[in-house]
Each structure stands twice: as C-alpha cells, then as structure tokens.
Amino acid sequence: MRFGWCLLWAFALAGCTSQPVIAPHGIVSNNPCIDAVLAEIALPGHVTAISSYSHDPDSASAPLAWSAKLPAIGTGAEELLLARPKLVLTGNLASSGANAVLARAGVKTVAIGVAPTIAEDIQQIRTIAAALGRGDAGERLISDIKESLPSTQFSGPNVSAIIWQNGGFVAGEGTLQDELLARHGFRNASAQYGLSSWGVLPLETLMRSPPQVIFMPTHKSGSDAREMRARQKLLAHLGGRTRIIEFPDRLLFCGGPTTIKVSAILAKTRASFGKDMP
After folding, report:
1. Residue 10, exposed/middle/buried by CB under 10 A (0-12, 13-18, 19+)?
2. CATH number of 159-271, picked from 3.40.50.1980, 1.10.3210.10, 3.40.50.620, 3.50.50.60
3. Which CATH number, 3.30.230.10, 3.40.30.10, 3.20.20.30, 3.40.50.1980, labels domain 18-147?
4. Which of 3, 63, 115, 163 has the fewest CB atoms below 10 angstroms from its CB?
5. Are 150 and 179 in contact (CB under 8 A)?
6. CA angle 263, 231, 205 (to 5 degrees)
7. Distance (Å, whole) CA 218 – CA 260
C-alpha cells in the first residue's frame, strides 16, 4: 500500500506526463524574463523548473541550451505546491490567488513586474539576485548591460524607427524598448501613429507614412509565415525609403540580458546611417 501511495505521489509531481519530475526544495520560475536572468546568475542545479515559454524558440529569452535541461511549470497554486520549492519567482501578472496560497503554505515568493525603464530593469535584476544570494553575479550582469549601452547621449540627428512585432504590436512611449531606441539615436515613430505605450499598428497605416527603420521579425513558421510573407511583399513597395532590420519577437518581451542583444542591433543599425545624415 505504501508503495502505491509513493507511485501516486510521483505521478502527481510529474503531472502524469512524461515530463521530468521537478526536484524538490529548489528555485522555481514561471516567468520567461526571470528565466533569462536566472540563466546568467544562478548556480548549476539551483533552478529546478522554469516557464514553458522558455522551451519555445520563438518566445524564449533564456538560452535554449540552458532551458532544455529543466522541466517547465505553470502558474497554478496546486502545480507550484506540488513542486515543493524553497523559492518561487513569478511575474506580477501571475494569479494573485496562487501567490496568496503559496504565502499561506510558507513558500517564499518574489513577484517581478514588467520594467518600463532601464533603471527599473536593473533594480529587478538586483532583487532576483538578492533572493538567490547571488548579489555579485547580479552586479556582473548589470555591468554587462551598462557596457552595452552608449556611454553618452547620442548627439547626431535622430532616425525615425519602430519596433514592430508579429501581429502588429508596437512598443511605444514609456516602455523599456522606447528608452533603448532613444539611447541609441532613434526617434520612436509610434507616437505619430497615435499609439501609446503599447498598441497595434495596421500595415496600411504604416505604408502611408513609414519610418526610416522598421525593426521586425523576418522569419516565421506555420501560419505566421504566411502573414510574414504577405507583410514583406507589401513592405517591398517602400523601396529604399525604409530599412527592414531583423528583430525577432523574442527580443521584445524582456529586459535583463536581452537588453545586451537589443543594444547590439540598435547600435549597428544607427551607425550605418552615420552621425550627421539620417
């Protein structure tokens, strides 16, 4: 009988699937942006489960080679409790009810929101690092992020640009991406289309008044690939007026180490215009 109960418990922990059992007493994250930070600062073996988004090449901000070694976990209280974690790192959009259940069960939970500025993103890295007892590793990541940014304010003319996600979503004023564009000498053109912090920009509107640069994904699979081909066919009519720069959707989701990759793309693109002639 005791053996039978052990089997039932094992199935519960595994979610009755072939997914690897989550090791108990570890650090669990169900947020892909937090996963990306953990991949850089956590010690091997300390993280025992991550967000399912980090297993998807189109949405993962963490390195897939790191994510593939870890089982995924959701946001439900029951699933999180069954994992028996010592620490849960979650986004502030996760179920507040689940967080309350975890608190009553004595499970330490740290919630991290979406950072609208570089300064707040850096503070969130410090919060995660402190929760792990990895302050020095957090500061090394922060140093790398700061080094990826221009050391001085860009002095040349600003180049108009948008970051245009699949589905038409655009990062506007008051977003981390908006600040990164400005730091690298771009003027976020989202405002000229009447968009606020986040909005959907129809292709027809963009075609009537295109910016000088469109940062967007250029490779997709499945149904997204058909939409992408249609979009690119129409954008080809812009000729030399607008540059299309490869910018995968996954670079739009998070700050943290993703900021380093975004900065590299923005810096290279702005440098191609020269300092004096946009």
Report:
1. exposed
2. 3.40.50.1980
3. 3.40.50.1980
4. 3
5. no
6. 85
7. 20
**Could you report the per-residue pLDDT of 60-115, keeping only the tens digit for each?**
999 999 999 999 998 888 899 999 999 999 986 555 678 788 888 899 999 998 89
First to last CA, the chain: 75
Task: List pLDDT tens digits, range 185-213.
Answer: 999 999 999 998 889 998 889 888 999 99
- Alpha-helical regions (H) of 46-117: 64-67, 77-82, 96-104
H or E stretch covering 33: helix 32-41
Alpha-carbon distances, residue 219 vs 91, 137, 176 (angstroms): 28, 34, 24
Residues 6+ apart with CB under 8 A from 253: 32, 33, 59, 61
**Helix (H), strand (E) at residue 2:** helix 2-14
- Domain ranges in the chain with CATH number 3.40.50.1980: 18-147, 159-271
CA atoms within 13 A on the CB side of 59: 10
The first and second tokens of residue 223, run together, are 């149904």
Among 199, 143, 149, which residue's Cα sits nearest to residue 171? 199
Report d(CA 197, CA 178) in Å as an integer: 9
Q: At residue 215, what is the residue type?
A: F
Residues whose CB is less than 8 angstroms from the CB of residue 171 and which lie 6 or more positions away in sequence, other chains included = 163, 165, 177, 178, 188, 190, 197, 198, 252
Compute the distance between CA of residue 90 and CA of residue 211 in angstroms, rounded to an integer: 36
Q: Are 270 and 186 in contact (CB under 8 A)?
A: yes
